[in-house]
Write a structure and sequence with these properties.
Radius of gyration of chain B: 21 Å
Number of helices of chain A: 8
Number of strands of chain A: 0
Number of strands of chain B: 0
CATH class of chain B: Mainly Alpha
Distance between the termini of chain B: 57 Å
CATH class of chain A: Mainly Alpha
CATH architecture of chain A: Orthogonal Bundle
Strand content of chain A: under 5%
Oligomer: heterotrimer
Strand content of chain B: under 5%
Largest sheet of chain B: none
CATH topology of chain A: MetI-like fold
Shape of chain A: flat
Low-confidence stretches of chain A: none
CATH topology of chain B: MetI-like fold
Largest sheet of chain A: none
Chains: A mainly alpha (216), B mainly alpha (221), C alpha/beta (264)
Shape of chain B: flat
Order of helices and strands of chain A: HHHHHHHH
Structural class of chain B: mainly alpha
Largest interface: A-B, 39 and 40 residues
Structural class of chain A: mainly alpha
Number of domains of chain A: 1
Radius of gyration of chain A: 21 Å
Chain lengths: 216, 221, 264
């Protein structure tokens, strides 16, 4: 059994690299999209606010798996042919973007109105108010849930195995297919996911505690 | 482009989706019910237990919360029967998994709720001579429930959505029904539009209902 | 109206400004002129529209009709053609010409006392960091907080925070300083230090419009008092004249009576 696991390790490592790569892409892309849409949700004109609200509530209202199948099978029907890898990244990014939008709304929304007004009063433009006054303050409310939410991207990435992408989950299934050592491999896989995600949630908690000492 | 929407085939196989939705709800309700029992017992135990028990409960919570559900589903369905002499069908296996999974999330919800119960309330309970058990049942749990209701509602909705993972071990719930129609009719966009709508309507109806319950609880205070 | 002038060179010219929140009229055709170097205090019962009027002057609030001009320039709307809100950039530039001090201080909690003052100087006035730093230190010295330059707002008392708030506003060299109940959120023993700063600014000739409940201050330090009631200017004039009107102005009398009952 041990020898079989040792034999499987390089293969699992490759899958793990794909898992990390997918997660990284999703986290970075959703951060950009989510902050942009989140700012639109808080400060945008009514049509923008509505559009972002509907987007976020819809995405958050359906299972990630359904979202992923919809994107993967639906895009070709719409004339868009993406590799399964990119379809998976797109679907997970949509899911994660909706999350980031809510983090941004929560963080930016927690800044008292007086801060914007004081910034206006000294003549800062909208962009300057965001970058110099609002974002620096919102950051410490945004960071802990966001880092903790990265675990959702890592966990969600396990679903890309269903589109035939050889991530950690798929690698595990393939090794089991060859070795018939199901239980040890699933446990090994679970421990790998656990290690990554626990580190992230631990970092998030540490950060939250550190920020808690900074008074408003 | 050139893809023309045609829902006829979807309606012809709609029983796959409707039956799937009912099964999704059934899976969710049973798992959540078991999860609530796990969560309550462990949370109450946790707040009064010593270090070792706390450590074990925390390990369970942290492990489950940091591993993808799909892996747990595989592990219970394909893995466990290879080491334990147990035989169960896919739906049972999934309910088992989701129960343990939801239990971990609910321990966390209940635990933070219990810790948020104001000290003064417990002292008041002591002052009128309630036994520890009476204090738990009549003071702590009701207060905790009111505090945790919003978080509880969100967890329930999230667990309902998680039932879609059951499709990977061929449990014929809603996502499985959608995939079946997808593969057998190729009306891809239509079937996922309808499925999305079904998840949204069900999820938001549940959420709306739970919010009503929350409001009633708040009013009853 | 001894010191008020009717010529068009008034620094601040509020003419017939009205504003409603839904069906509630908060400002009814308010007109007021303030000359350079004047200190005008605005008093009146809560809900009389005094804070709203002040917030219209730097366009934190829009107004429905009338005009507000600073140095002859319309504040919130474009000069020509139909009434059209100024662009975001224009508004920012207009607002930089007025300074505002808030009731709740509104210091930026992530910046030090000096950082609070430097932000507008670097971002809006385009000054170098070093130059902004010098100006910040100068003004912190003026408000008696030279030693607190590196303190975060959370480390300062309310009175100290408000003095930084004042320094932040005046460091921008505004044409006019707007003070919105700046001592209302302070413990009574901290009010004096803040008012002393305002007094010294007045002596330097800073033009100020100040909404306040500090009657003694209004009486002693202002060139004119504006008494507002129900969204309109009920009386305006030098302190002595206004306080003498107590016998003839029913609203003023009841305001002052209630005021004395609750404050003394």
């Amino acid at each position: 059994m041990l020898s079989q696991i040792l034999y499987a390790l390089p293969f699992l490592a490759q899958g793990f690299a794909v898992t990390l790569w997918v997660s990284l892409l999703v986290v970075v892309l959703s951060l950009i999209a989510g902050v942009a849409l989140g700012v639109g949700l808080v400060y945008g004109p009514a049509p923008v606010r509505w559009a972002v609200r509907i987007f976020s509530d819809t995405i958050r209202g359906i299972p990630i798996l359904v979202l992923m199948f919809f994107v993967y099978y639906g895009l070709p029907a719409a004339g868009l042919h993406l590799q399964s890898f990119w379809a998976a990244v797109l679907a997970l990014t949509l899911f994660k973007t909706a999350q980031v939008v809510e983090y941004v709304r929560g963080a930016v929304g927690s800044i008292p109105k007086g801060q914007s007004e004081a910034a206006m009063a000294i003549g800062l433009t909208f962009r300057q108010r965001l970058t110099s006054v609002i974002f620096p303050q919102a950051l410490r409310r945004f960071l802990p849930p966001w880092i903790n939410g990265v675990t959702d991207a890592v966990k969600g990435s396990a679903l890309v195995s269903l589109l035939g992408i050889t991530d950690l989950m798929q690698a595990i299934n393939q090794v089991i297919g060859r070795t018939y050592e199901a239980m040890p491999l699933y446990i090994l896989g679970a421990l790998i996911y656990f290690a990554v995600n626990y580190a992230l949630s631990y970092a998030s908690r540490r950060l939250e505690r550190r920020f808690a000492f900074i008074r408003d | 482009m050139g893809y023309a929407l045609n829902f006829n085939l979807i309606w012809r196989h709609f029983d796959k989706l409707w039956g799937g939705l009912l099964l999704s709800l059934e899976l969710a309700v049973i798992s959540i019910a078991i999860g609530i029992v796990i969560g309550l017992v462990l949370a109450v135990w946790y707040v009064s237990a010593g270090r070792v028990v706390r450590g074990i409960i925390a390990a369970y919570v942290e492990f489950i919360r940091n591993v993808p559900l799909i892996l747990l589903v595989y592990l219970v369905f394909y893995g466990v029967p290879t080491v334990v002499d147990l035989a169960y069908d896919a739906p049972t296996s999934f309910v088992l998994t989701l129960s343990v999974y939801s239990g971990a999330y609910l321990v966390e919800v209940f635990r933070s709720g219990l810790e948020a119960v104001p000290r003064g309330q417990l002292d008041a309970g002591k002052a009128i001579g309630l036994t520890p058990w009476q204090r738990l049942v009549h003071v702590r749990l009701p207060t905790m429930l009111r505090i945790t209701l919003p978080a509880l509602s969100n967890t329930f909705i999230s667990l309902f959505k998680d039932t879609s993972i059951a499709s990977v071990i061929s449990v014929p719930e809603l996502t499985y029904g959608a995939q079946w129609i997808n593969f057998n009719t190729f009306r891809i966009v239509e079937v996922y539009l309808v499925t999305t709508a079904m998840y949204l309507v069900t999820g938001y109806t549940l959420l709306f209902g739970l919010r009503l319950v929350e409001r009633r609880f708040r009013a009853a205070r | 109206m001894a010191t008020s002038s009717n010529d068009t060179t008034a620094l601040l010219d509020i003419a017939g400004v009205s504003k409603a929140f839904g069906s509630v009229e908060v400002l009814r055709a308010v007109s007021l002129k303030v000359d350079k170097g004047e200190v005008v205090t605005v008093i009146g019962p809560s809900g009389s529209g005094k804070t709203t009027l002040l917030r219209c002057v730097n366009f934190l609030e829009s107004y429905d009709s009338g005009s507000i001009r600073i140095d002859g320039k319309e504040v919130g709307f474009r000069e020509a053609g139909a009434r059209q809100r100024r662009s975001e950039r224009d508004l920012a530039a207009m607002r930089a010409e007025t300074g505002m001090v808030f009731q709740s201080f509104n210091l930026f909690p992530h910046l030090t006392a000096a950082g609070n003052i430097m932000l507008g100087l670097t971002k809006v006035r385009g000054k170098s960091k070093a130059e902004a730093r010098q100006i910040a230190e100068h003004w912190l010295g003026r408000v008696g907080l030279a030693h607190k330059a590196e303190s975060l707002p959370a480390e300062l008392s309310g009175g100290q925070q408000q003095r930084v708030g004042i320094a932040r506003a005046v460091a921008m060299e505004p044409k006019i300083l707007l003070l919105d109940e700046i001592t209302s959120a302070l413990d009574p023993e901290l009010v004096g230090e803040v008012l002393a700063v305002v007094r010294s600014l007045a002596e330097d000739g800073m033009t100020m419009v100040m909404v306040t409940h500090e009657m003694a201050f209004a009486r002693d330090a202002s060139s004119r008092i504006v008494f507002m009631a129900d969204g309109g200017v009920s009386a305006v004039g030098p302190p002595k004249e206004i306080l003498a009107q107590e016998t003839t102005n029913e609203r003023l009398r009841s305001f002052l009576a209630r005021f004395r009952a609750s404050h003394f």
